[in-house]
Amino acid sequence: MSAPLRYFDLIGEMGNAFNHRLRLVAHARQHGLKDAARLFHTTLPAVQYAAREAAAIFLQ
Predict the structure, then answer these.
(1) b vs e for 34-54, b when ≥16 Cβ sit within 10 Å of the residue's Cβ?
(2) Where in the chain are the domains?
(3) What separation in angstroms does the CA of 14 have from each of 1, 2, 11, 20, 59?
């Protein structure tokens, strides 16, 4: 079995990563940042970054 892709590698390969980030942020809001990082195979700073970016987009 191959290792899961890292978050930024996955995002870089996507044409439009908006939906993936939206799911990540929604999960983080419901279950917490650390749980979202574990589930999406990424780091806590990556989840925090996605949450900040989402907040900036939705608060415009």
Answers:
(1) eebbeebebeeebbeebbeeb
(2) 7-58
(3) 22, 19, 5, 9, 25
Beta-carbon count within 10 A of 15 CB? 4
The token duo for 17 is 């990563």
Which tokens is 33 given? 């940042």
The rounded distance, in Å, linking the Cα atoms of 45 and 16 is 21
Contacts of range 50-56, beta carbons closer than 8 Å, 24 or more positions apart: 50/21, 50/24, 50/25, 51/25, 53/21, 54/21, 54/22, 54/25
User: What global pTM score does this model have?
Assistant: 0.72
The predicted-structure confidence for 6-24, as pLDDT tens digits, reads as follows 666 677 667 677 778 888 9
